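2024-03-11 09:14:02 INFO worker-7 job=invfold-0412 stage=load source=structure_tokens
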């Protein structure tokens, strides 16, 4: 069986990371896999570096041209983003290949154009039960199977905690709150600032490291300054291997308004970092009894839960953390995810 993965997004976020992890799992399970990706973007470079067959594209027109020539070359095409879904559907009459789409967003699909795309997709896979329910309620697609995102477990910190903090000019005795999220509206970064502001009213020796970039950068920076948090809320920007920083964190924070699943939470689980989060989308089912949940936008609840975590002794041995670690190791294995996708590919290829 030969599978073509398609992800033509710019940058390196959860969907791109999951695309590469899916490819690694498939290859390890004996499936031949290739990728269409945007030239010189992180996914293109990483996949090429790992020895995958990568078909580079420059723009959407180039994608349409490349996809149109794929007839009889693959058993299945797997679109890994909304943009890629559009590109693969509207060339399907030319490539004539069964199409699978992984839906990662938790808003309700609407409109004739969207309905047409889903009608011509052989299987839409949801990355959480929340997304599958949203599709059912939209009446555009029913009974979408759920395959959770997954991560590989070999994660190592790049430096010792003390060395890392010294490089930032920070006291090694601080407690670290980690955030890994784009600076975009649906991630609600202003709530993260408000959360830290509440925490520092009671606990001074705390810093928040926010990894991510986005269109709200200046708004977030202004909000940090307005709350006089310049020395404790640090915008770390984009990091190529951000997963390596999780072992340095004392607690991980998610403030999303909308979230399909939140694969960074899995990083926290695997590194036995306590998680405090909003209950948006798939976060509710992922975290459940494995962390602490608050309503979207409730920075007072988020700050209280973080303070509770920081006030605990022997954080790493808490029941929630151990539940989370066991769940991630057993249920969110990248090879398990790969096997589940192979079942889907085999099913649509027989149609």
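2024-03-11 09:14:09 INFO worker-7 stage=emit residues=351
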């Amino acid at each position: 069986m030969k599978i073509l993965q398609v992800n033509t997004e710019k940058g390196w976020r959860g969907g791109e990371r999951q695309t590469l992890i899916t490819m690694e799992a498939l290859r390890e399970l004996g499936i031949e896999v290739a990728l269409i990706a945007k030239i010189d973007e992180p996914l293109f470079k990483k996949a090429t570096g790992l020895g995958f067959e990568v078909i580079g594209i420059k723009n959407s027109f180039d994608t349409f041209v490349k996809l149109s020539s794929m007839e009889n070359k693959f058993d299945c095409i797997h679109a890994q983003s909304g943009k890629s879904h559009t590109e693969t559907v509207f060339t399907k009459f030319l490539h004539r290949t069964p199409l699978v789409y992984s839906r990662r967003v938790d808003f309700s699909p609407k409109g004739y154009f969207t309905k047409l795309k889903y009608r011509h997709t052989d299987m839409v896979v949801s990355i959480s039960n929340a997304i599958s329910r949203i599709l059912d309620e939209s009446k555009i697609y029913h009974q979408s199977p759920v395959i959770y995102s997954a991560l590989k477990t070999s994660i190592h910190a790049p430096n010792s905690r003390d060395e890392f903090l010294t490089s930032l000019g920070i006291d090694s005795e601080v407690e670290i709150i980690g955030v890994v999220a784009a600076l975009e509206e649906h991630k609600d970064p202003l709530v993260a600032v408000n959360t830290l502001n509440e925490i520092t009213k009671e606990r001074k020796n705390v810093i928040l490291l926010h990894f991510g970039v986005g269109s709200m950068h200046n708004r977030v920076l202004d909000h940090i300054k307005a709350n006089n948090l310049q020395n404790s809320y640090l915008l770390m920007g984009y990091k190529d291997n951000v997963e390596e920083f999780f072992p340095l964190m004392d607690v991980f924070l998610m403030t999303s308004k909308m979230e399909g699943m939140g694969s960074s939470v899995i990083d926290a689980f695997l590194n036995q970092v306590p998680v405090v989060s909003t209950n948006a989308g798939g976060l509710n089912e992922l975290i459940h009894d494995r962390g602490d949940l608050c309503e979207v936008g409730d920075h007072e609840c988020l700050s209280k839960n973080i303070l509770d975590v920081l006030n605990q002794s022997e954080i790493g041995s808490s029941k929630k953390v151990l539940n989370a670690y066991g769940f991630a190791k057993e249920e969110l294995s990248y090879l398990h995810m790969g096997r589940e996708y192979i079942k889907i590919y085999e099913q649509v290829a027989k149609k």
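2024-03-11 09:14:09 INFO worker-7 stage=report msg="The domain at 161-331 is CATH 3.40.50.2000 (Rossmann fold)."
2024-03-11 09:14:10 INFO worker-7 job finished
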